Amino acid sequence: MLAATRAAARARKLPISARALSSSSKRQSDALFVHRDTDYNNSKIPFAFTEENMKKAKEVISHYPPQYKKAAIIPLLDLGQRQNKGWTSISVMNYVAQLVEVPPMRVYEVATFYTMFNREPIGQNFVQVCTTTPCMLRGAYEILDTVKSHLGGIKVGDTTKDGKFTLVEVECLGACSSAPMMAVNDDFYEDLTPETTRKVLDVFKSGSKPKVGPQAGRHTVENSAGLTSLTSKPYGPGEHCTPEFQ
Asked: Into how many domains does the chain fold?
């Protein structure tokens, strides 16, 4: 049908309009899945676990039967990324493949699938701002803009010139009840406002670590109005049961 329509248009010398199949922005897939050697990321750069991390790696591998060592790929990649200053190079992947005795492609498949593995170098503090619906409704984009401006006007995906911060925008991090929030390295900073966001970043800038968790004063995700349930003594074994069950 489409071919016939185009043929008819050509016969009548009418312009043929092209309709895009997608309205989303274009992005080269090789930036996500294809490795290209650079001077800082190529297989000739040696990598090996430190003595301490090798002990951890062996302990992780021991959790699985010998024929299923490949099940340890994810925790081993995480261990390698932590040792490699927060990112997973091609050398880290190849090293993990040797440890669990699988073709390197099996490790590449894992590292390119999970977004927790950074395949480019990152800053000392990895800032992930959640903009999924619950956080968005609570002002996540204002928090994202605050981070951008307070870190010198960087954009999402950029690293500050001093190498202290890398900023990314992420999907749900699982702290919906204390939105908006951001993760810095392994820790969550929740109930954020532009003011508290700047304070958190300033503490990191000074080389210290701010108080983890909600920044609005509440403990974990307790009701902001205070404790409203489980306020009485919990029942004991058999309490309030009929006599035959006591």
From this structure: 2
